[in-house]
Design brief:
The chain is an alpha/beta fold. It has 2 domains: 286 residues, TIM Barrel (Alpha-Beta Barrel); 73 residues, no CATH class. It has 17 helices and 15 strands. An 8-stranded parallel barrel has the order 1-2-8-9-10-11-14-15, surrounded by 6 helices. A two-stranded antiparallel ribbon has the order 4-5. Helix 13 runs parallel beside helix 15. It is globular, with a radius of gyration of 21 Å. 49% of the residues are buried. The N terminus is likely disordered.
Length: 436
């Protein structure tokens, strides 16, 4: 098997690796050669964790993190690869992002699950994001099938398009290339529309990301050296894809996702199924109790002051229905002291713990430089951004989440950052045996 450009890129990132596994990933979507397990597979880090530490103010926390610079480093279940775990630089939901997250030591790797026109299950963060996360608009035969075809920008309106996984078949989906999520609202042509990546990410590896089905994702993650777990998220269809979809019900969709793991012989203890749709969680608890006991209840119901109070009040009731894990965005879990200088646990964090709910948070490394998050009204920092000024505070934030609140794990767009911290503090992550 020969090395690829992607292998060399990941090897260059993995500065702390002792050895590199022999992995061949052809830049095609047919007859993909997935990596085989190797006993000599070592995780490694790019410079980012060390950059963050160097930007910290002097403190006991900084000294502790500095003491861990030479490892040893191991795979950590506390570190969850969001959309693969390499999304800060690699196209999301692709083999390349997943392989980067794995090399960075993420013990749990994500596939967001959407369905195609022929009811195939594929890894895509939204049913209707193909126009911004793939090259579908550059394939005229598939672009013609989009829910909203490409319309160029004019003097009064921006460029528009809307392409959904449900517009095309699974076979057609697998001919696409993943790309960095973004678009050019001023575009006059589909080619120009492809660009728009935030300046703090990169298009260096934006060279036809290898898209995945749920089945191929399972094959990939199960083949990885070390013991890795799965976290599939059942994506709630948007209004443009009303359910039932040609007779396909939400209930069957929820069954199909878990049945894929059952059919593949994956032990339920390795599967951390997620959904924002409460009926999905309760269905899994009833119909698939071995999976449901560790299902992850994603909560974004508290984005305003009034709904936030309601979200906090709802937590005991969610626990009473058998849910063990709640998963809010990090801004729900953090606030500041009255002087806006110190980051502390929020009412939501305290209420979750009081209700007996474990917490898995999202999403770390999904924002740009921290010096700008307050001015930019960044969503993930909306409740505590006034106390954030430098990138060095990333580890201060993670310290509050992990060591004060006691979250069980956190999704990250760049898994090396979290894996480093988890190794330094010996954070174990969620365990199936904790849930009965």
């Amino acid at each position: 098997m020969r090395a690829t450009v992607f292998e060399l890129a990941v090897a260059a990132l993995a500065v702390g690796s002792v050895k590199a596994a022999a992995v061949a990933l052809e830049p095609r979507h047919t007859d993909i050669e997935y990596p085989l397990p190797h006993a000599d597979y070592y995780i490694g880090f790019d410079p980012r964790p060390f950059y963050i530490i160097n930007n910290m103010t002097n403190s006991t926390l900084k000294t502790k993190l500095q003491s861990c610079e030479n490892g040893p480093f191991r795979i950590s279940m506390f570190s969850i690869g969001h959309r693969g775990g390499g999304t800060l630089q690699f196209p999301e939901e692709t083999v390349e992002s997943t392989m980067a997250g794995a090399r960075f030591g993420a013990g749990i790797l994500e596939c967001d699950v959407s369905f195609t026109k022929d009811r195939g299950l594929v890894c895509r963060h939204s049913l209707c994001d193909l126009h911004t996360t793939t090259n579908i608009l550059l394939k005229p035969e598939l672009a013609a099938k989009c829910t909203v075809p490409f319309t160029p920008a004019n003097a009064t309106a921006p460029a528009t398009a809307l392409c959904c996984t449900s517009d095309i078949t699974t076979a057609e989906y697998m001919t696409l290339c993943g790309k960095q999520d973004g678009f050019n609202a001023s575009a006059k042509t589909p080619k120009d529309y492809q660009y728009g990546t935030p300046v703090w990410r990169t298009e260096l590896y934006d060279t036809c990301g290898t898209v995945q089905t749920l089945d191929s994702y399972i094959t990939l993650v199960d083949s990885l050296p070390g013991y890795r777990n799965f976290t599939p998220e059942l994506k709630t269809p948007p209004p443009q894809v009303p359910m039932p979809f040609n007779g396909y019900t939400q209930q069957q969709y929820a069954r199909d996702m878990l049945d894929t793991f059952v059919r593949r012989g994956i032990d339920p203890s390795r599967v951390w199924a997620q959904s924002f749709n409460p009926p999905d969680i309760y269905q899994w608890l009833q119909e698939y109790p071995a999976f449901g006991k560790q299902a992850v209840f994603l909560d974004e119901s508290g984005d305003t002051p009034d709904t936030y109070a309601a979200a906090v009040a709802a937590l005991p009731g969610i626990r009473a229905k058998g849910v063990n894990i709640i998963s809010p965005p990090i801004n729900y879990l953090l606030t500041t002291t009255p002087d806006n200088k110190t980051i502390i646990p929020s009412a939501y964090a305290n209420a979750s713990k009081a209700a007996g709910l474990d917490i898995i948070a999202w999403t770390f490394e999904r924002s740009g430089p921290l010096a700008n998050v307050f001015a930019n009204q960044d969503y993930y920092y909306s409740t505590f951004g006034q106390a954030v000024h430098t990138d060095g505070q990333l580890y201060e934030i993670l310290d509050v989440l992990a060591n004060q609140i006691g979250i069980k794990g956190i999704f990250s767009d760049w898994s090396s950052t979290v894996t480093y911290f988890a190794n330094c503090f010996k954070l174990k992550g969620p365990k199936s045996s904790d849930y009965k």
